[in-house]
Fold these 2 entries.
Entry 1:
Amino acid sequence: MNAYLRFAILATSLNVAFPASAEEAIGTVNFQANCAEHLRPDVDHALGMMHHMMYTQALAEFEAVAQKAPGCAAAHWGVATSILQPLWGTTPSEAEITRGREAIEQARQTVEDEREKLLIEATAAFFEPETGQVRERLSGWIAGMEEAYQAFPEDLNVATLYALSRLTRALYADNPQALHDEAERVLRAAWETEPTHPGAVHYSIHATDADGRSANATKIVDSYGEIAPEVPHALHMPSHIYVRLGDWPRTIEWNRRSADVARDHKEGDATSFHYIHAMDYLVYGHLQRGEDEAAETVWKTAQANGPHQGNFPGAYHLASIPARLAVEARNWDAAAAVTPREPGYISWDKFAWPDGLSWFARGLGAVHSGDLDAAREAEQRMATLVEEAKSAADARFAVYLEVDRKILAGWIANAEGNPERAVELMESAGELESTVEKHPVSPGALLPPYEALGDLLLSLDRPTEALAAYEQSDQTWPQRYNTLQGASRAAEEAGDTESASQWRQRLQETAPETTRKTGA
């Protein structure tokens, strides 16, 4: 029995995705691994999948090469680096840490090339510390990638991974703009050298998936689906920019294509999270066009194609979609009926932010339905989750939860007869939201704070202030259906007929065939 067949049997028994064919289009990667020449295309394909953040597939492909050629240091490095996943805020399990350390040790024993040695040591710096804090692990990898880039700045794979490390550092930096600037420069230079390099294209999207940057690289963004037409994440990634721009038809189209491909990708017995990830973005796009029935159909289809992968993205989307459907439609009965911590096969204790989304929707439904006891219970549960999230891999999780908690607390204060306190809480939520970027797992907030503030001020018969709140929300979350509808109503009630007409026109362009009936 040859080594590749033995690996295939092992991969099946461990529920590991079997490697894709090296013939599958993934863009242009020419790593020139210090391995047997006939194995270099396999290493290139695996590295391309890693650049596409198809980490499970990359891991399986690198392992297949390592089985064939135990002396290929790049394959062992790829096994470890595929576990790293720097932007996703995931905490590796003890088994994954052990696996990464073993791969690094094998890589060190076989490496001869200086470039590969630097990459191996960068990844080693992630796995070697004895710490439960992912941020501490990432800092070593970030420093190692800087050393590798200084030594080999012209190498496209080193350069693009270095840019990824800059974006990773930006997650925790007081001044992320400078890091995004540097990453954009490095990635654009790589893209101009090789326009079909998957790292140059993919990481450019992450570099511009930030406030004020979304229009910086639309040409690069639009090229992604042609580079890797059968890679689910490649087909999804352009929508990160289109949700920032409020371009819902493109958001819908890209994610429909991604979901169609991802549906057949399995992680053991579960459907890969790339599928439910695309479906949540698809739901969000339909809702912003007021296409509530289409969004509901997407959710029913997604449920029928489960069970879904139980990692952080899977948990997030399985919580967010039912919550989003209810809150966007302002269907408060449905929101109050949202059941937290479903489905039961998800380990919800690991995922405070996703758990909090259900409680947020449930609390909003309760407070708008007059059940203050249930609303207060939800708000208290969210406060507990905020504290739990402070020790999460991604420091932003606690902030996202606290923004939502403040919004819910504001509605509770209003229901208790304290509207000024309600306004203060929602303004505070908006200020807090401005301190973090949108997380890439999410297409958008369930209820943006300034949109919520606009709804509140309208209910208090303060339309001029409400219009200002909607305008502010539109700057961060453009072309949202409820923002446009709320702004047009606020302008009309304020007697600003010209502004009301402009907002109605934008709403008509965004949702030309829909007139959703909603109310705060």
Entry 2:
Amino acid sequence: MSKIKSSNLGYPRIGENREWKRALEAYWNGNISENELIEKTDEIRLNNLKKQKDEGIDLIPVGDFSLYDHVLDTSATFGIVPNRYNYSGGKVDTDTYFAIARGVDDAVASEMTKWFNTNYHYIVPELNDATPDLVENRALHYYKEAKEKLGIDGKPIILGPITYLKLSKGYQEAEFSQLVNTFLPLYVQILQELADAGATWVQIDEPIFSSRVDEEVIEAAEKVYQAFANEVPRINIIFQTYFEKLFAYERISKLPVKAIGLDFVHGDSLELLKTYGFPKDKVLAAGIVDGRNVWRASLEDKLTILETIKQFVHEDQLIIQPSSSLLHVPVTKTLEGKIDSVILGGLSFADEKLQEVVTLTKGLKEGRASIQGEINELKNALNNLQATYRSNDVVRKEITNLTEKDSKRNTPFAERIKLQEERLQLPLLPTTTIGSLPQTPEVRSTRTKWRKGEITDLDYEQFVNDNINRWIAIQEEIGIDVLVHGEFERNDMVEYFGEKFNGFSVTEYGWVQSYGSRCVKPPLIFGDVSWEKPITVKESVYAQSLTHRPVKGMLTGPVTILNWSFVHDTKPRYEIMKQIALALRKEIEALEENNIKIIQVDEPALREGLPLDADKWDEYLEEAAYVFRLATATVAADTQIHTHMCYSNFEDIFDCIDALDADVISIETSRSHGELVSTFEENTYTKEIGLGVYDIHSPRIPSVEELKQNINRALKTISPKQFWVNPDCGLKTRKEDETIAALKVMVEAAKAVRKDQLATQK
């Protein structure tokens, strides 16, 4: 009998109905105790494991669950806690753990950034002068729990030492090898304790090797995994990579581990096998089901790929699994009751992907005939989905006829900015916010009532207008220079447009974790995208009618809409991105026609979409800059285009930021303010910019002095005539009292620095 195994790399934490999110927020708000939080999250975790057991997964991941973030969990494992939290050693308690992620009192939160090229955010480890120690073997705890409570001999998941260190900050590159030596015995101890407890398989995630790494990093991996093999030979280690092809394949595939995990969905892993073969003494863990998209896999096509893969390995040396953790997709489609049945038939969320893995494992073990019924059913579902494809010949013709000229504004920035200054009459260091204002429980519940038909359209519109009216007055009272309407009518910055553009569909329960308890519901793109009628004009015009100060029109950019949607894998991504840009262009023109003269087109996901393979960067960045300009190029010279970007390594995309040709860019940098400013020290940027001066992801209220320091730090590099003062992101998730207090501090700090600057200029 074939010994081919099925496996999973990780399961969503949030629960079918986001029970995890609600438990976390209830604890943070003081509504439940720590014991109640642990009880609720234990229940979610065990239910996740039971699902995978019932589905028939052979190698079930344990230790993938987290109360916030798996990278932060790794830091807590080793007692890596910044000094500002007054940590005295030993197991990291729950409140300290959350303080690192969210900030507390005078201790700012640790930096948060994107997990490779996904919309998941991790907490960046701060090593600095830390003395790592194994203060809690979390992997061991979860392994024992699964074994004792559910009879599951699980596969512990550990974030590998090379990836953990390369994602960390607070050390010089020259110190990397020494840090590897410091952490190595701690990892060995984790593995020894797992082996002593009976664990046979351990998945060590090293996704850093899906990007280009230097010789020192490869040598470090060879040293580390040789030590693991020498010290803990009882453990079968899976060296797991994902998101793209394995870099330095020839070297890494020879590591003394039991298995190598490769992504056969994204990247060119099959080409690596064909070129270099696969070691005869290893198991190949083949990521064949897409862990990052929600469309059903063609079982026939996937089985063909697996049959090709089998040519390079013995059939007993194969594991079938998703391409990455299922953290990046919703939990289950069984709750979806309103979506078109044909579209539903083409969807596959986490639970359904487990079924696909099990089915493909059976098909490879027993032959195609054993799963022919499933293949036929899927063919019908995919054919039905293809038949519903919304084709738009007008849009396709527009795309075909596009030229570079279509993406160029008629007036260069140096001339535009003079016209904009004359029209807007803003002070030095103007203040603004990023766009969204607090979505209170009342806002969310009223939207739900409206969607359920419990209140009329007129009642809902009046409710939205009342909130806009109130917040325009609040912003004026605080003294903000450029206002926003608050986006009270919007559920999410991408989903909202997915509900309005043709070619999209939306789900009810398709939630995915973005950061902490923050979940988003990406829309589905399965047709040509087009604009039908104004989407944001009514609220923007109403807000502007309430004030003499400028109010920004707020849109989400084409790159972000694409990257934060689930695009059917048969649709060319760059072509769809251009279609979205043309749809947004019509919306921008409608705003301008209604005298909205500052229009913000947010691109928080631009850096996120950058391929891990640096050879593919230029094409992506050129396309991203082109579609942004395509969306914004037709506005008048005195209409000011803003954009916003989230946590990123901006040095990688500096030229692209400039190529967007936005008049003002704001960047989410409060947790890594100095590092970002250094990018602008090393590069010349002539347009206007706002570096987020305080962290909206934390409930703490910054001090005036703290924000003055942040502003003045930036002004050492950036001219005060270029600089805007703003929070680092939208305020949707914050409470009203927190928001008002922090904005008052921000405006006070801006006015103080403005006064100093004007005095200096005299």
